Amino acid sequence: MASLPQAPVHMGTVRQQQQQQLMLRHPNLYIACSTLQPTRHRGRGKHCAAQGSVAAAVEEAKQSSASAVLETASTSGLNSVRPSISLSQSSGVGVKVVGVRKEYKTKGGVYIGADGIDLEIQAGKMTALLGPSGSGKTTLLRLISGLEEPTEGRIYFDDEDATELPVQEREIGFVFQSYALFRHMTVAQNIAFGPRIRRLGIDLDQRVQELLELIELPGLGHRHPPQLSGGQRQRVALARALASNPRLLLLDEPFGALDPMIRKSVRKGLKGIIDKVGVTSILVTHDQEEAFDLADQIVIFNRGKVIQVGDRDQIRRSPATPFVLNFIDDVNQLPVNCQFVKRMGFKADKPLVMCRPSGVEVSAQPPDQSQKFAPAIVVDRIDIGSMIKYILRFDDGVVIEMHLQGEEHERRLAFDLQQRVFVHANPEHFWPFYPDEISSAPL
């Protein structure tokens, strides 16, 4: 019986060669290889150890009965060991995280990557884990995938306790920033790799053509990854992840390697593909626009904790904490005792206050006596696409921003540089805060 092909020796770094060899020899753990980079935690000079080395993953794979079967299986013509499933029949799984905590031991002490997380992820929907670097979002993704084991807590797939379920039995598809495509395989071979190795009882040629149509790359199955654009490679990586009918799709910063000019169109295409398939998806990102554009549910993280859960409208209209408002939106941060805040009649025990630039009102003439205002000077004007940004300086030297949409700006007088203007804001929209309340530095 034919043996599995070995990775070519000309491919990149030693680590890349190790990853390719692991993926070919032990396909049940090939995705783990793509995530065995050490995790650098913000504010720390040392790397925390990843779950294991490539050698450890290989050893674990060798001890798996499924991998033992694959060691002697042919790379083609495999008999079916799982029922054939069409993409149209894909169904997502609900994920429930209960009291999950993850601790890492470092030379400086114990680092808490996830701190008592409780979360429900809806089946068939896309959930975005959004937060700054080191906030715990990738830690939770690795815990859900099985690449990490929680120190405390349980993880459920529907009603099944999946906390100790091996990675290869979780039926998960992965899409990473680096895509991890085989350069020596064609697009069609990359897409067919998972179903072929996992012995799905399907027509591989039909599945590949179906997925090429889905990702809008028909006729490109003969090409190799280096012959594709970044956006095309990203779609191939998605097709490969979907080829084995996963019940859960995990996307870790999938657009990070793309040019900013094409990210938006690629995001739109990816969302359409996932909606058609109906698989439960979890997206890790630090990009607010990306999360709001794609996700049905958004989970905001900071310092290993879930700070707020909701849809895009709920989070924008009603941020739960000063951190959320500061993270998802542009804000003015002002001393509570500055001239503008005092003139608006706002008082607070905290030293700082924030407000949205879109909530600042400016007029060329003093408002009537019923409305509070503070005089300021226009010191700069910046056109950003459809938005106009004004920089205003009050008599006490404090500077704020005001934003106007282009259409609104056209209906009102444009302000000249150094023009004296009069500024108002509703004090009900002020948020008092301490500096530590908006910090993302590890505790």
Walk me through what this model shows.
Helix 8 packs parallel to helix 9. Residues 1-16 and 25-85 have low confidence and may be disordered. The N and C termini lie far apart (56 Å). The chain contains 14 helices and 20 strands. It is of the alpha+beta class and 443 residues long. Strand 3 and strand 4 (109-121) form a beta hairpin. The protein has a 6-stranded mixed beta sheet with strand order 8-9-10-5-11-12, with helices on both faces. The chain has 2 domains: 84-317, P-loop containing nucleotide triphosphate hydrolases (Rossmann fold, 3-Layer(aba) Sandwich), CATH 3.40.50; 330-438, OB fold (Dihydrolipoamide Acetyltransferase, E2P).
Please sum up the structure shown.
Helix content is 28%, strand content 26%. By secondary structure, the protein is α+β, with helices and mostly antiparallel strands.
